[in-house]
Amino acid sequence: MASLVLKENREKSLLRNHPWVFDGAIEEEIGTPRSGATVDILSSSGKWLAKAAYSPHSQIRARVWSFNQDTIIDNNFFTQCIKNAISKRKAWLQKQRTNAYRIVAAESDGLPGITIDLYGDVLVIQLLSAGADKHRDKIVHSLKKIFPDYVIHERSDVAVRKKEGLEQYIETHVGVLPNTVIIQENGLKIEVDLINGHKTGFYLDQRKNRKIAGRLCRDKKVLNCFSYTGTFGLSAALNGAKSVVNLDVSESAIDTSLHNVQLNSDVLNEASITHLMVDVFEQLRVYKENKTRFDVIILDPPKFVENKNHLVRAARGYKDINRLACELLNENGCLITFSCSGLMREDLFSKIVADAAQDAGVYLSVQDRLHQDCDHTVASYFPEGHYLKGLVCIKSKFI
């Protein structure tokens, strides 16, 4: 097996069980490993450190499978890792009213580059790294063993694979894939588009936050920006919002949201929910000009930061929408604002929101800090797994 020898004093992160080895940390490659191949990671003194998947095209040159030298990266390895991931979620699952959740959260579950989500009786996998891609058959074999009666569909159709030298890849490995599946979440029915939906089909990571947001909306006039499938709006309506306006630029997103409203007509007032297919930034300015105000504004924009070069531009975008939201809130109104960009640090996001409030001439009191739901685990050794951050803020004037 080929080896990667690190530069002097570059093993510190590995000794803390962090699973990434960057190209700049490597002094020498011994042998000629192929993309996705398992390699040994050695310190500059030759000490064995880890077994990792080699990725020649990525700045993250290797992703660790195991810190145990005796581990064999075979079918049993993947089966056991997936079982361990399910076991970690068992207590959490017993408290949930859902049939859709994340089974494997990549590095945080010891399986770098591998995401597995469950929707009813369908498993959707994404393989985002060279090592994950190489072991596709083993991963599918393990899932068939653990979930023998489930459809297994792969949606490795994301741009990040290009950084690994991989093409986009879509295939149904087991069973017949339905176009959509109805999931249950916090008393709501939601239709998930398994073929065209974002991520693996749906934003499961916001489940807990939708419930929290909904409880803040009783008898409130609610604006749900970047509404996508409309689920924040559904939660608001379910909890007795006076009115809900969903804004999204995508026609297909609006259509999906309208369908989700109809699916839940037995538990909410359809007439209280309206939809506008508009550019959110432009519509917020229209509301400002027209002096339209809201009691609750939810900002859940798409990822603004794809790489570090976009960070400054993204910060301007976050500040712009949060400033406008501050200006559109009624006194004592509630701003619920998110960033799903992993490169956007939580402290920086908090500062951007604070600066937006300052520019709007209002005072925000942070009442709660929100994160991804518990099935989207964050391992102690992998803080990068914490990507979703949100703030619940109450508006008041300066005295």
From TrEMBL:
High-level lineage: Bacteria, Pseudomonadati, Pseudomonadota, Gammaproteobacteria, Alteromonadales
GO process annotations (BP) = methylation
Please tell me whether the keyword Nucleotide-binding is annotated for this protein: no
List the SMART domains hit by this protein, alphabetically: PUA
UniProt record similarity statement? Belongs to the methyltransferase superfamily. RlmI family.
Could you say which EC number(s) this protein's record lists?
2.1.1.-
Q: Which UniProt keywords apply?
A: Cytoplasm, Methyltransferase, RNA-binding, rRNA processing, S-adenosyl-L-methionine, Transferase
Q: Where does the record place the PUA domain? A: 2-87
Q: What name has this protein been given in UniProt?
A: Class I SAM-dependent methyltransferase
Q: Name one Pfam family in it.
A: PUA_3
The keyword rRNA processing appears for this protein: yes
Q: Which subcellular locations apply to this protein?
A: Cytoplasm
Q: Provide the species name.
A: Glaciecola petra
Leading EC class: transferase
